[in-house]
Amino acid sequence: MPNSKRLILAHFWLAFAGFGVALVLGAWQMFVRSPLHPWISDPEWYYRSLTAHGTVMAYAFPTLVAMGFGYAITEAALNQPLVGRRWAWAGWWILAVGAVTALVPVALGNASVLYTFYPPQIGSPFYYIGVVLVVVGSWFWVALMSVNLALWKRAHPSAPVPLAMFGMLGGAYLWAWTSVGAALELLLQIIPVALGLKSTIDAGLARVFFSWTLHAIVYFWLIPTYVAYYAIVPRAIGGRLYSDTMGRIAFVLFLVVAMPIGIHHTFEDPQVGAAFKFIHSAFTALVVVPTLITVFTICASVEIVGRLRGGRGPFGWIAALPWDNPIMLAIAFSFVMLGFGGAGGIINMSYQLNMPIHNTQWITGHFHLIFGGAIVIMYFAIAYDLWPHLTGRPLLDLGLMRLQLWLWFVGMIVTTFPWHWVGILGMPRRMAYFDFTDAALAPEAVSVTISVIGGLVLLASGLLFIAVLLRGHLAPVREVESYRFAEAVHPPVAVPAALNGYAVWIALMILLTLTNYGFPIAQLAARSDTSVPPVYVGAQR
Amino acid sequence: MSAPDPVHAAGEERAARVERRWAGLAVCLMVLLTGMAAYAGIHRATMPQARVETVDPQRLHIGGEFVESNLGSALEDDGSVTVRAIGQQYSFTPTCIIVPTATPITIRATSADVVHGILIQNTNINTMLAPGYVSVISARFDKPGDYLMPCQEFCSFGHEGMWGKVRVVAKEEFVANAARQRRQSCAQ
Q1: Are residues B7 and B24 in the same domain?
Q2: Which residues of A belong to the active site?
Q3: What would the pLDDT profile of B52-98 be if each residue is shown by its tens digit?
Q4: How many domains does one find in chain B?
Q5: Cα A14 from Cα A96, distance rounded (Å)
Q6: Residues B105 and B19 in one domain
Q7: B32 touches chain A (CB under 8 A)
Q8: What pTM does this model have?
Q9: How far A292 CA lies from chain B's nearest CA (Å)?
């Protein structure tokens, strides 16, 4: 399998190294603002840490996982060596240099603006330029995925594109387009001000630009997980995929409807009118559909395995599943967290119900459960599944892997459930300190303390994950069979062109972005009377 | 392909039926949720701000509705109350907002510098404050009491200290005070 093993390992290791550091920061943040710790004498350290945690976890880590996994799929699913490996290395280097460029000013305390930027607060220009480089590096990957598939299609006219490749490519196109929103915000608004070329900035417009990126980026994080659901899980647990077609439909739907919905992040903002808020709310409801399709198809695929292993009755097949297989554990945990996180997400997108929990700890709990839980636990599964094929050495610590997944699942539930609860009580997010001696905040102290314990369990699990992978490099070399993806019960013979390529769906995605974002952006961009001078981070006022 | 075997064909048909049902359920769920949101919005049970209003953020202190002397709670001719407030690093003005019970209240607020937010705990009053734009939100309180009002958006290093208060007093008390004070607040 993969010819580009070093390239793929470089992506995964950079991703997991960043993940490890950001995880330590996250656990520290949970502790330092809890009742277990006295007043943080300099709250700036908290926001510095939060900026680093968000920047790594949201931009660098998932992007690198998607890239590494994408290259592995390109070689394994298309069964051809990666074309343009030198360009892929160039992308990796640009990304790595960008990450360092962004994180040095953060570490120095010159860019504590959080990963969501929040103009008119303005930090060091190097922070934003570094983030742009991270994105530019990932665009190399998008282009390479596209080129490699085009070459394969030329050699295999009218053959069905393997589902794993089809899904990853959808993620790549989604990322290319959704990153444009933040790119516009950075290049047109923030960087000119950070460099002193412009003296005012419109915070309302910036928030709308960022919402363009902010929601679909979540689906970009999600795509590797969904590819793992469809293309790894059924094979890894000894079964077949229930429906190849439904997988294609799910990926196509994600590409189209993940994009024109970001304004649901600005429901409580004054710069967007009610009509566009409602339109985006309704479109967000559409995203439920590909997820429910996936839940059905994957549960059916897993049920096939349970029944093949002798499970009977409506629930007997569940007991018959191969629970000692880490991938089986991971998919089960992922689905439980997807269920809770998805239900919370439906509350967030529902126009009215969002009001009591907007910008409270509920939101932090929600996206940690969905991203850190349902998505990242499958990143672990992807690494476990792929590692032997990258190192040529088997992963022998099945028990440690199961323990690691259990700890991550339990840790994530213990962290995020109390987080949701204090959010309902109205606890705001992103605060370095809470005065739990205040009678109105005292009831939150117990919940916050419980979630600190969850955070420590997560930290232990994350470090264990890295240890398992490191030990994998030290195991004896052994012949590893070639890497395969799940086969469908009915393998696709001929696929309609619309489900074998993205041309029409990309056109639809761009069109819907224009209809759903064109007017709000044009209207805000035309204003000149709502801009404010920047507030530079660390400047004396 | 080989000739379909009858057992397999029956199973396949059943599988397709179940799949279709599930897809139908997913679509119905989506339509139901959107319909509920539309219904509640049309009936103004609760909904986000409807219109976009702007204010020159660099002249807030010079004139217009957000000058300092106009901030606080005002009793309108129709008996409703309008609260005007601004957020700036790292406090609200007024720091303590006073409102009467059993009265329709309109909160109008904006920011004088960066993005802030207003969240009144244990209510569903929650809005962003963005410089240049006026946030408008309707509210009504039934019982007297005190509420905490934290800034819910990161506004730089003093964010954790930006907590305001809302005090709900009996309507009679508020109206009596309104005769003496054009703009009320409970800030000390």
Answers
A1: yes
A2: 215, 219, 366-368, 429-430
A3: 999 999 999 998 999 999 999 999 999 999 999 999 999 999 999 99
A4: 2
A5: 8
A6: no
A7: no
A8: 0.95
A9: 6
